[in-house]
Amino acid sequence: MPRVSQDHLDARRRQILDGSRVCFARYGYEGATVRRLEEATGLSRGAIFHHFRDKESLFLALAEDDAVRMADVVAEQGLVQVMRELLAGDSEHPADWLGTRLEVSRRLRTDPEFRARWAERSEQLTVATRERLKRQREAGNLRDDVDVDVLTAFLELVLEGLVSHLAMGLPGDDLGPVLDLVEETVRRHRPGATR
What we know:
CATH class of the largest domain: Mainly Alpha
CATH topology of the largest domain: Tetracycline Repressor, domain 2
Oligomer: single chain
Structural class: mainly alpha
Number of domains: 2
Number of strands: 0
Order of helices and strands: HHHHHHHHH
């Protein structure tokens, strides 16, 4: 039997994640049946669950994949940029990412086991945000009268509010100035600088 290359395995895993992201976004966790996952990925149940132990492991991997991508953007450009990309639809899977994020939020409220498993993974975004803010403070760009942990919590709450806003189907095209205000709120104001 020929050996399957790591590149092939990685490509198959990516195919499963991309297809299941659409499925979970469209149907939610409960509605993403195995049959629907098969249709969305174009793969059999055996192929899907060869890579992931069960549906919850697949969903966690998907949510973790999204969190890693967000953390990468945060490390380079900040959490407000993640929000801007979400509004602009510039991210690779904006609507599907939103669906995954909403499903994570719902399951955190209703499923204690999921909450425990997710807690191990969710710290990534918080750490990336906190580290970026610390670098900005060291560079003199961040206000120094508020603790970095408070600023981190503030930005995370704004993100959650934005996600809720979009989840309700409310328009986001006029929220650019709101995100400008959020950014301005965490910046250091130098004496004599004009706003």
